[in-house]
Structures are given as structure tokens and as C-alpha cells.
Amino acid sequence: MSLIELQRDIRAWLIKEDQWAAQRIGPDAAPGLRIYQNNYRAQLIACLDESFAHTRDWLGHDVFHQAMAAHIDRVPPSSWTLDAYTRDVPETLAAMYPHDPEIAELAWLDRALGDAFVGADAQPLSTTVLSEVDWDRAVLHFGPTLDLIDATTNAAAIWAALAAGEVPPAVELLSEPGALLVWRHDLVSRFRMIDGDEQQAILLARSGVSFAELCTSLVAAHGETDGVAMAGALLGRWLADGLITDITEGDETCASPQS
Questions:
Q1: Residue-level pLDDT at 158
Q2: DSSP-assigned letter for residue 95
Q3: CA 127, CA 207: separation in Å to the nearest integer?
Q4: Domain limits of the chain?
Q5: The Putative DNA-binding domain covers which part of the protein (predicted)?
Q6: Are 201 and 215 in contact (CB under 8 A)?
Q7: Cα(214)–Cα(43) distance, rounded to whole angstroms?
């Protein structure tokens, strides 16, 4: 048996408990293979336990570990780093608990905050350059750690309470569509709930439209006075939060927003 064949058989045993693979490795290998498989699962569960601590606290230790055991069976590791193994956990929990959407949202928040902490560095834009910006053509660029997801529950409030060691509130569905926003600023992973207007504005900006086009979109939705005021307020908030890392000039000239 070649080395690559042995590696494939060990992988098949670890992931699927493949009896044929175990027999090819050797008739006397079964006890060692069981120990190896137990260590493999225990190390993955320990990794997930650390990465999803607040999801674990919400579900309870035993229920969480049962769910992670199911996840290990569903999604074997496929990357050289364990950091990547957390990626599919929210999807596993969404499938396991379709009537409890806060669980998957908590898991997403746990994962996104961890990803933001180890994400690429980028210097937030200084407000001193704003006077030099051609707002007719300005295109906003967000930092690489920014992430967001649709939110349907008060998972953010639950997470915050668990992180503070407080009794979490009961689950509530949001009355209006919103999103969870995660990023890193000043070496700290941060999050906040945002409404649908801000979510759509961020998605538009990230797609490469100019700030003037973003203003036009908000004016169309809210009227000229409120739309322009909202655009200015969002820009100010994004700068204060350290979300924006650069402003470049787009190719097309648009109507200049008034602020």
C-alpha cells in the first residue's frame, strides 16, 4: 500500500468509519483506529466549543455537543486550518433547528466575530481627506473584515447578554427587516444591529456604485430631504465606526449630493 492510499483509507475511516478502509490498513489496527477517531472528533468538538461559546451557552452544553457531533458527520474538515472549519456551522444549526432561527443567527455572530478578529488589516480612512473628495464620482470602500447577514430575531441582544454574563432575554422576532453587521476596529471585533435601509446602502456601496448614486437611491425611497439626510448620517456613522478604508473616483459622473 502506498502512502497516499494509506492516507485516503485513514481519512475514510475517520470521516465515515469505513470498515473496508480499516481492513486494508490491517486486521490488528482496529483498536488504534478507534482511539484515533475518538481523538479526531474530540479535537474538532473542542475547536467548535471554543469558537461558538455563546451559542453553546444558549443551547446548553450537552445539546450543543450533540449538534456539533452531527455537524462533524455532515461536514468533514476540508482545509489546512481549523479556522475554516467553523464556516458551515450556522448552516448545520439552521437545518437542525428550522423553527428556532435565533440559534443559527447566534452561531453566525460567534463565527463572524472570530473571523473579523483574524481578518486582514486595513487602516480606517481619516476624515481629514474628506474635503478633497469629488463627491460626484466618489466610491466608498469598506474594510475586509466587514460582514453582514439578514437578521430575523433579537439574537444580537441575546449574544450581548450572554457575553456579559447576564440572563438573556426571551427570543423575539424582529418587527422590521434588519441585519447583523460585524467588523473589526482598533483590534476589537464589533457588531451592531442595522435596519433594512442601512443594509441596502452597504450592499449598494460594496457593489461599487458611487456615493451620489447611493444618495439617489435613498432619495427615491424616502424623498429628497430625508434621503439626503440619511445618506449623510450613514456616511458619518461608517467613518466613525472605522468601516471605510478608502474613497476612490468612479468612472461615471453622477449628480452631486447635497449635504
A1: 98
A2: H
A3: 23
A4: 1-99, 103-259
A5: 5-91
A6: no
A7: 47
The C-alpha atoms of residue 68 and residue 71 are separated, in whole angstroms, by 5
Q: Which cell numbers hold the place of 13?
A: 475511516
Q: Which cell is 112 given? A: 463572524
> Which pTM value belongs to this model?
0.83
Burial 11-44 (b: 16+ CB within 10 A, else e): ebbbbeebeebbebbeeebeeebeeebeebeeeb
Residues whose CB is less than 8 angstroms from the CB of residue 78 and which lie 6 or more positions away in sequence, other chains included:
84
Can you say how many angstroms the Cα of residue 216 is from the centroid of all Cα atoms in its chain?
Answer: 29
User: Under a CB-based contact definition with an 8 Å cutoff, are residues 6 and 26 in contact?
Assistant: no
Q: Quick one: which of 208, 200, 190, 193 has its CA closest to 231?
A: 200
Reply yes or no on whether the pLDDT at 256 is more than 50: no
CA distance 73 to 149: 26
H or E segment and range at residue 196: helix 196-206
Residue 245 gets which letter from DSSP?
A: E
User: How many CA atoms are closer than 13 Å to the CA of 8, on its beta-carbon side?
Assistant: 7
Cβ atoms 127, 75 nearer than 8 A: no
Identify whether the C-beta of residue 257 lies closer than 8 Å to the C-beta of residue 215: yes
Q: Tally Cβ neighbours within 10 Å of residue 225.
A: 10
Relative orientation angle of helices 89-96 and 101-117, to the nearest 10 degrees: 170
Q: Is residue 113 exposed (0-12), middle (13-18) or buried (19+ Cβ within 10 Å)?
A: buried
Q: How far apart are CA 95 and CA 42, in angstroms?
A: 23
pLDDT digits (tens, 9 = 90+) for 69-104: 899 888 887 777 777 889 999 999 999 999 999 999
